[in-house]
Amino acid sequence: MRVHTFLRTADRDMETAETLAQHSPHLYESIGFSCQQAAEKYLKAALLLYGLPAPFIHDLTSLATGLATQVVFDQDDVSAATILTAFAVKWRYEHDDAPDFAVADLLAMAHRFRAKLRPLAVAFLT
């Protein structure tokens, strides 16, 4: 089942981000990328569980928009989606203009999506 696969992979992306944050916090772009990937997969799992398409895109805001009739996203969620989306491509590689968020901020953004969407997927799978 694809929902299960997205959920498992999202959890692994979160574990990667948390491990890097703990042991190699200087790998900022990699942590941000793993956070973005986790949020993307939690969103796609939720889309699938509602029978909605999970397009092959990395734009978290667009993915969340696809869920808008099923899940309430507040302004902080939208802000986190916008920030993390940039780590999918633009800030995936070191840039002098990368945003100045603490690693803990990036993890908190990804955890927003995990806390909101993972329970829905788990309930669907049980």
What's a concise summary of this model?
With 126 residues, this protein is an all-alpha fold. It contains 5 helices and no strands.
Please characterize this protein's 3D structure.
The chain has a single domain (about 1-125), classed as Up-down Bundle (Four Helix Bundle (Hemerythrin (Met), subunit A)), CATH 1.20.120. It contains five helices and no strands. It is globular. Helix 2 (about 30-50) packs parallel to helix 3 and helix 2 runs parallel beside helix 5. The protein has helices at about 1-25, 30-50, 60-65, 75-85, 105-125. Helix content is about 70%, strand content about 0%. The protein has about 130 residues and is mainly alpha-helical.
Task: Note the overall shape.
Answer: globular
Q: Unreliable runs, pLDDT <50, ≥5 residues? A: none
Just name the CATH architecture: Up-down Bundle
Determine the strand fraction and express it as a percent band: under 5%
What pattern of helices and strands is seen along the backbone?
Answer: HHHHH
Q: Please compute the radius of gyration using only Cα atoms.
A: 14 Å
The span between the termini is: 12 Å
Please give the structural blueprint.
Layout (H helix, E strand, L loop, with lengths): L1 H22 L4 H22 L10 H7 L8 H12 L16 H23 L1
List the defining traits of the structure above.
126 residues, mainly alpha, Four Helix Bundle (Hemerythrin (Met), subunit A), 5 helices
